[in-house]
Amino acid sequence: RLHKAKMGDYYKFNHNDMDSLRKNLERATKKVAETGGGILVITEGVFGMSGKVGSLDEIVKMKEDFNFRILVDDAHGFGTMGPNGRGVHEELNCIDGIDLYFSTFAKSMASIGAFIAASKEIVMFLKYNMRSQIYAKALPMPFVVGGMKRLELIKKHPELREKLWENVRAIQTGFKAKGFDVGETTSPVTPIFLQD
Questions:
Q1: DSSP letter string, the chain
Q2: Choosing a second label site near 141 at 20 to 30 A (CA), which of 5, 40, 41, 82?
Q3: CB 111 within 8 A of CB 150
Q4: What 8-state DSSP symbol labels residue 80?
Q5: d(CA 33, CA 160)
Q6: How far apart, in whole angstroms, are the C-alpha atoms of residue 120 and residue 137?
Q7: What separation in angstroms does the CA of 45 have from each of 77, 87, 132, 187, 189?
Q8: Checking DSSP bridges between strand 114-117 and strand 100-104, what pairing results, if any?
Q9: HEC string of 45-76?
Q10: How far is the first Cα of the chain from the last one, in angstroms, to the nearest whole number?
């Protein structure tokens, strides 16, 4: 909704296709040179329908050629991907290249709410300019305390994530052995594609 409000044009790049992204960045860069403004690339860490991991490291590398910011929706990666559960950007070793990192507490933390991690300047801008936040209520304290405890578990108990991955490998291998098509998932998201 923000992009149509008063934020200018938007271009779609083909799903996880870096050539398509590069072409659209070239178009957007020309537009910005004419009109001013900036470029924001929005993508996912783990694509929720396929389980494929987004090419965040390749997108970050494109910052060498283009001036843009990246917003990553990592609802399915936070808590499950990377050596410390920080998400796909940790898994692909490109944390410093991500400008806005968004995730939910509803997946790996089994709760409600969400968060965005960014520079203080960006967070304050969003806090005071997003209509949905102007009259929003804070999470109830039990959810905050529970969330902090779950975050501590993610950080201090990698064996829980290791067990998750053991279960993921078992179920994906089992489905494949029974003839199910789980696609090319490289995450805990396990789709089953039905054939005609």
A1: -HHHHTS-------TT-HHHHHHHHHHHHHHHHHH----EEEEESB-TTT-PBP-HHHHHHGGGTS--EEEEE-TTTTTTSSTTS--HHHHTT-GGG-SEEEEESSSTT-SS-EEEE--HHHHHHHHHH-HHHHTPPPPPHHHHHHHHHHHHHHHH-HHHHHHHHHHHHHHHHHHHHTT-B-TT--SS----B---
A2: 82
A3: yes
A4: T
A5: 49
A6: 20
A7: 6, 7, 24, 10, 12
A8: antiparallel
A9: CECCCCCCECCHHHHHHHHHCCCCEEEEECCC
A10: 37
Give the position of tokens 């529970």: 146
Q: Residue written as tokens 């957007």?
A: 28
CA distance 47 to 77: 9
Buried b (16+ CB within 10 A) or exposed e, 22-43: bebbeebeeebeeeeeebbbeb
**pLDDT per position as a tens digit, 6-17:** 567 889 999 999
* Phi, psi (rounded to 5 degrees) for 163: -65, -40
Q: Which residue has the tokens 């905050």?
A: 144
The pLDDT tens digits of the residues spanning 75-120 come to: 999 999 999 999 999 999 999 999 999 999 999 999 998 899 999 9
